[in-house]
Fold this protein.
Amino acid sequence: MKTYYLPAYAIADLIKSRQISAVEVLEETLERVRSVDGRAGQVDVSNAQSKEDLNSVHAFTQLADEHARGQAEKIDQMVKAGENPGPLAGVPYTAKDIFTVKGIPATAGSKILSNYIAPYTATVIERMAEAGAMMIGKVNLDEFTYGSSSESSALKPVPRNPWDTSRVTGGSSGGSAAAVAAGEGAISLGTDTGGSIRQPAAFCGTVGLKPTYGRVSRYGLIAFGSSLDCPGPLTRNVMDAALVLQAIAGEDPRDNTAAVVPVPDYLAELEKDIHGLRIGLSEEFFRVTYFDAKTGELKENPIDNEIKDAILSVAGYLAQLGADIVVDVPLPHTKYGIPTYFVISRVEASSNLLRYDGVKYGYRTDQPFADLRELYRKTRGAAFGVEPKLRMLMGIYLSAAQFDKGYYQRALKARALIRSDFETIFDPKGKYRLDALLTPTTPSTAFPIGGVYGDSVLMQYSDQLTVTTNHAGIPGLTVPVGFDKEGLPIGAQFLGPDYSEGLLLRLGRAFEKVTENEDWRDRRPPLLPAND
Amino acid sequence: MTDKISSDVFKRLVDLASLELPEGEGEYLRKELNNQMVSIEVLESIPIDAETGTAAHGVPYTEMNSPVPREDVSRQDPHREDILKQAPELEDGYIVVPDISHEELY
């Protein structure tokens, strides 16, 4: 078996027991990237066109092979010297190109940062290095994380789903999910503002964990919605997600929203029994709202039966293991999740985007300009794609005094109500006393490339089952639970109260164990040789 | 249905956002913004009153989980040269800012 498809914990064990070196693991992984990834994303080039392009993953925006080689050699020296190289020793991973790593470009998938070399390193990247992991490169995403398919990146070709390269990876951490699914690194670090870890993880058949807001430092993360952004891992199994969270969680003097809350031993939590846990199912998560562009109306439908059946099957397994399944759990404000997100995230995004001006760093127009205002307009007009433009314009409209009709204040109140829904169902003295909620992660499986992109409302509604988690700040874990009839992965989501990541991981692990011998667990993306 | 964001309002927003839009992009953006407003208007139907609180963060920050503010001291950034290198135009270690036009404020 090649190491590129092994779990992170197994790779670290092989390296620590000197059965393989970190340099060997790295070279195997880089070879894997070369064989399946195709052209790395770049600005001012065409999207996928050739047969080779259309059959490649295109997860990467750049390889950091020299950077990783330095880390691998250090790990091998530590092993040789009998020192402990860390729990993720020699594990190859990728980082969404929204994290800064000193000396390495950080593009955010945008032309406006296409020439930006980060002068400092994100806290999570530093912590992964301390745990022994090797960062092999940066991976593509929706521009500034604005999207749910990774198609809005200015760096082309955009990522393609390893299970079916005519389908989207989801987004915005689409490069992360695709890389992990295709064996290009055992782990990827992503970010989740409205579902951007969990939705692509579900579409690509990986595990994805959005931690509680403040559980993981945002220092060194290029900001989208500052009250919503959460860095977290995408992995191929639950234990790896636990290992990564263990490495990156905790307070950080450089981020005053990183909460001062002790970090539990997530690995110790993993194998605990789930007997007696109360797991809820809510009808609000089994129907979907969508925007009909022809009529300009919002419509509601029941969720796809295949996805619903898959989630009910997960509930059945958990019941077999002794969990109590509680049905008809009310979350009445779920339907306001996307409208609330349209307001809060746009206002925060427009504020965060004003700093890009062609003066201090990043792209500057090559056209002549008469003064500063013209420089701004020409630089920003040429270097932002349509998604950042939409978000800026909407953010300004919703918050500007002359246009404001109280949208922002109303959205903050809606957010409080969404939070209150979750507090009610997780209240240990309340009527429901849930330990966790079980839901589908997405309303559909991965949709065709080009099928939704361009319709900004319909695209946003693909996050409707993940976004309320971000409003409430609570953690969410998605795990793969099977495939639809077209062979595309289906994800199930566990949601829990603040800082309950350990419990969510335990549930994910319990499901993983009880289904470990099922046939679907042996499936690999067609890019992967069957016997690997 | 009347567009919430008229052509005139859109023009004003584009100016506030400091954007020079490529030919033909404006109409697409305005259409999408108005479609998004259909969703946003749903918020009008939420039963809220003066008693309903607002949430700036989902997870509340209390004395128990908030970090102590850092000491307010200045210090030399260790990345000064790396940061300056990013600027498109430098002069004697300063970032050059193009002329600032004098225009009527709104």
About this structure: Chain A has a mean pLDDT of 95. The radius of gyration of chain A is 22 Å. The first helix of chain A runs from residue 8 to 16.
